[in-house]
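Why this split exists: single-chain examples teach little about how molecules sit against one another. For that reason, every record in the complexes split bundles all components of an assembly together and asks for one structure covering all of them. Below is a record exactly as it appears in the raw files.
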Amino acid sequence: MTSKKQVPYAALKRIFHEPNRLAIMSALAGASKGCSFTDLRGACALTDGNLSRHLKVLEEEKAVHIEKAFVGVKPRTTATLTDDGRQRFMVYLQALEEVLQAATRAIQSEPPATA
Amino acid sequence: MTSKKQVPYAALKRIFHEPNRLAIMSALAGASKGCSFTDLRGACALTDGNLSRHLKVLEEEKAVHIEKAFVGVKPRTTATLTDDGRQRFMVYLQALEEVLQAATRAIQSEPPATA
DNA sequence: AGAATAGCTTTTTATTGCAAAGTACTTTTT
DNA sequence: AAAAAGTACTTTGCAATAAAAAGCTATTCT
């Protein structure tokens, strides 16, 4: 029976760890006023369907807040980070940094390979 | 049609980006002589089944080399990084670092939330 | 009017992380 | 000697989900 040991990698919550969501979160982290669907799609190089899906996941986790409005006749969806989402993202980033440093140390401690 | 733009997050290859495999790769990166199945299982806090599966994935991708031998009467599986695996892992780590720095910059440039 | 485009959402498909069960042994224990 | 309990893995099966495809709905172009 493998007891659940405390390994730092466990802190890499999937909700943020997925590359595309990491991109979305990063884009939103730098935009206090939020980002429109279209901007995010461009910034993260995502298809409409994927962006929609990822945003919904992030919204369900209450990491982002989605607002739908009309600008003139056109619909506009705007995503912003929630306070909680920002907080949790920072925790994730710290965990990521630790993991990255450990990995970097490990790989640098070894010679590039021999015989 | 969303053209495949060059976004750094694309470099976060899934093969390494999965938390448990990241743990495995990091452990192996620090062990030029390789790690036994049992050691890895302990170091990464994985169940037998999961470790087996992840190792197979890494082996299929030729990122690790698996050697099976008998020590006395007992079987022993030893995993080592391949040169190519090490190389690709370093590329992944560099991408991860860039992504992390971008995210950290973004989140620090914004106030902890208002209104 | 009909076709194309914009801005999304929903559904389908394919992958895969993970737990549980299985295999093939060896080493006790009774 | 037979049964029970380990050890060291592998295989199977399912539930979650990322990505692709298909669907809206409304507007603008021709």
